[in-house]
From TrEMBL:
PANTHER family: PROTEASE (PTHR35797:SF1), PROTEASE-RELATED (PTHR35797). Keywords: Hydrolase, Membrane, Transmembrane, Transmembrane helix. It comes from Mesorhizobium newzealandense. InterPro entries: MmRce1-like, Rce1/LyrA-like_dom. This is CPBP family intramembrane glutamic endopeptidase. It is an enzyme of class 3 (hydrolase). Signal peptide: none annotated. Pfam families: Rce1-like. Its EC number is 3.4.-.-. Residues 119-210 form the CAAX prenyl protease 2/Lysostaphin resistance protein A-like domain. One of its GO terms (molecular function) is hydrolase activity. The chain crosses the membrane at residues 12-33, 39-57, 78-97, 145-165, 230-249.
Length: 267
């Protein structure tokens, strides 16, 4: 009879995705019944699933690898600029060019002061996705997907599942088509960041920045102007994703040194 650990070991990704969705969606039921007013949405399903499947399939060494990536901060400063600046810059550019497509001028007074945002951002970082998701999506799933798929294919697979993971929010009216498409595109950008840093910490920072730049800077518009601005943001993320694939290729999203390229060509 096949043991549970050996079964999980052979089907790690299936076990992870099933558990991540199952835990999150089951925990979503009280949130749904309360109309999202009294309790927070449980966003720790991917992290819990990642640690459980890692422990069952690879023991402490697999768990330790995820933990190490969560605190890996020694990376080139450029990648910190990417993690902070790319989501913020994308949102800012979409706001600035929105009036060119007929929107009203941005109402910057609607954007809260930084001193007001920071405590809320800290809470959102823990309870609204980044901490609960990134150890699972990037720390566990990405390395295993890329072991058998190209970076582009693995990113799209993970991006689609990541988008599906959010679907219960549609039951409480907190899901849109542009946000769903954005998640799939972000899957490519997050894989690129992770492949070049090996750091879940950097993915966490990008997740926090992306989520909250949309949440707070988006207040500069309302109604149809807000929706248009978010679609512009999606278009910019699409351009970034295409640029990554065009420059790095589809295989790894990492530029190999010229010596490696020459050796590969001579082989």
């Amino acid at each position: 009879m096949t043991s549970v650990p050996s079964l999980v070991r052979r089907h790690q990704l299936t076990a992870f995705f099933s558990l991540a969705l199952g835990l999150t969606w089951l925990a979503f039921i009280p949130f749904w019944l309360s109309d999202g007013d009294s309790i927070p949405w449980f966003t720790f399903g991917p992290m819990v699933a990642g640690f459980i499947v890692a422990a069952l399939s690879g023991g402490w060494s697999s768990v330790k690898a995820i933990l190490a990536s969560m605190v890996k901060w020694r990376v080139h400063p450029f990648w910190y600029l990417v993690a902070f600046g790319l989501p913020f810059g994308t949102q800012l550019v979409s706001i600035l060019i929105n009036p060119l497509f007929g929107a009203a001028a941005p109402a910057w007074s609607n954007v809260p002061a930084l001193s007001e945002m920071l405590p809320i951002i800290a809470l959102y970082a823990v309870f609204s996705g980044p901490l609960g998701e990134e150890p699972g999506w990037r720390g566990f799933a990405t390395p295993r997907l890329l072991a058998s798929h190209s970076a582009l294919a693995g990113s799209l697979i993970l991006g689609v599942i990541w988008a599906i993971w959010h679907f219960p929010l549609g039951l409480v009216g907190d899901l849109s088509l542009y946000s769903t498409i954005n998640v799939v595109l972000a899957g490519i950008v997050f894989t690129w960041l992770y492949q070049n840093t090996g750091s879940v910490l950097l993915a966490f920072i990008m997740h926090v920045t992306h989520q909250n730049s949309v949440r707070f800077l988006g207040k500069a518009f309302t109604g149809g102007d807000y929706g248009q601005q978010q679609w512009i943001g999606v278009a910019i993320w699409a351009i970034i994703a295409v640029a990554i694939v065009a420059y790095y290729g589809t295989e790894s999203f990492v530029r190999r040194p010229r010596t490696q390229l020459a050796a590969a060509g001579a082989a």
